[in-house]
Design goal:
Distance between the termini of chain B: 32 Å
Helix content of chain B: over 70%
Structural class of chain B: mainly alpha
Helix content of chain A: over 70%
Radius of gyration of chain B: 30 Å
Order of helices and strands of chain A: HHHH
Number of helices of chain B: 9
Strand content of chain B: under 5%
Strand content of chain A: under 5%
Shape of chain B: elongated
Distance between the termini of chain A: 52 Å
Number of domains of chain A: 2
Number of helices of chain A: 4
Structural class of chain A: mainly alpha
Oligomer: heterodimer
Number of strands of chain A: 0
Largest interface: A-B, 70 and 75 residues
């Protein structure tokens, strides 16, 4: 099977031929006949342009073939990256639990500060916060 | 004997320190991940490639239209696959970014709320100095707890994803180049039709037709010029992403 670069190179040369044909056509159209009309008949110009379009369509068809070859067989790489992205999310979840631990420590510390004031009414708020936090933590898996 | 062992241990520690400092800095990883929105241009250009026929159709002869319709079917079928290449790359880059994220692991908020919690008790005998000391300690603990886990997770992801990323980015680069070449031919079909027909317009009888054609010619030239610029930019951005990814991979200690 032809390789992606070979097909692309073939398409490049078809595009280049179309460019050459177009340059030729435009030169003829810009050279007016004595009566001011283009030296070439409209029918001839259209027929020539039709060939140019055909060349470009062939080239684009080859570019598509080449693109398909470039993208083929990458399903595995694709899957692997999606799988890795999922694993990273797991890792993030694990590290988040460490963060929870810091949160808990902070709450314990403010509870400690409340205890140190010796004013029991100050205890209620930090205690409630801590209880809620513990209840919200995911069960250890 | 004892002394040489101590020196050996110190050397090992120094080596380990060397390893740690050679791992990619989280800021670099985040900077890499922040480039992922640039992949949007690839998506946009794939979509433009997919809709080539719609733009060409009014300018095609019946025979050329028939041929182009066949090509269009193949293009439609393949473009979905082309667009998918980007999905995996983007998901991977975003995951890396979150994993190396500042916000996620910056415990400054926790430290602050802790300080605030302590300050709320003015009679506790705890003064500003203590609060700052607590905060400093908490910061150190937080860093010590999260850093190694984050570092190794980022390194693992970079190591495991390297090959797949290189392949997908390479394919995307090739496809952008092919879109550009295909768009060139599309441009020359559209503008070429106008260019070869305008000389035959009767300048006195068909003034309106001439004005409309020239105006369309002008607009189309601008449109294709912009598309070309957009493609060049997309290729440059993709090359920058490939390069940044290689640089990150080269920074991680090889196993």
């Amino acid at each position: 099977m032809a390789d992606q670069h070979d097909i692309e190179a073939l398409a490049d040369s078809l595009s280049a031929s179309a460019d050459a044909l177009h340059a030729h056509l435009m030169r003829a159209l810009r050279k007016p006949a004595p009566d001011g009309a283009p030296a070439m008949s409209q029918g001839t110009a259209q027929a020539l342009f039709e060939n140019e379009v055909l060349l470009r369509q062939r080239a684009n068809s080859l570019y598509l073939d080449s693109a398909r070859l470039a993208a083929a067989g990458l399903g595995g790489a694709q899957q692997q990256l999606l799988e890795l992205a999922r694993r990273a999310e797991d890792a993030i979840a694990r590290i988040d639990r460490v963060k929870d631990m810091i949160d808990l420590t902070a709450e314990l510390l403010s509870l400690g500060a409340a205890v140190a004031t010796g004013k029991p009414d100050h205890l209620a708020a930090p205690l409630e916060k801590l209880k809620h936090h513990l209840a919200a933590l995911p069960a250890p898996g | 004997m004892k002394l040489s062992r101590v020196i050996l241990i110190l050397c090992c520690l120094a080596l380990l320190g060397g390893c740690a400092s050679s791992s990619p800095r989280m800021a670099d990883v985040r900077a890499f991940a922040a480039q992922s929105p640039h992949l949007g241009a690839y998506h946009e250009l794939t979509e433009r490639y997919r809709t080539t026929y719609q733009r060409e159709q009014p300018f095609l002869s019946p025979a050329a239209d028939l041929r182009e319709r066949q090509l269009d079917q193949q293009r439609q079928a393949s473009s979905a696959d082309f667009a998918k290449l980007q999905t995996g790359v983007q998901a991977y880059m975003q995951a890396l970014g979150r994993l190396a994220g500042d916000k996620q692991y910056d415990l400054e908020d926790q430290v602050k709320s802790m300080s605030a919690g302590i300050k709320a008790w003015p009679d506790s005998g705890i003064d500003e100095r203590h609060v700052n000391a607590y905060a400093g300690l908490a910061r150190l603990v937080a860093r010590a707890l999260t850093r190694p886990a984050q570092d190794s997770a980022v390194q693992e992801l970079l190591r495991d994803g390297h090959q797949a990323m290189a392949e997908l980015l390479g394919a995307m680069r090739t496809l952008l180049r092919l879109y550009d070449k295909s768009s060139d031919n599309e441009q020359k079909i559209v503008l070429g039709m106008l260019e070869t027909e305008i000389p035959f317009v009767d300048t006195r009888r068909d003034r309106l037709l001439l004005a409309l054609s020239r105006s369309l010619q002008h607009d189309k030239q601008a449109e294709y010029h912009l598309t070309g610029v957009r493609n060049t930019q997309a290729q440059q951005n993709l090359a920058a992403i490939e390069q940044a990814h290689r640089a990150l991979f080269n920074q991680i200690p090889q196993q």
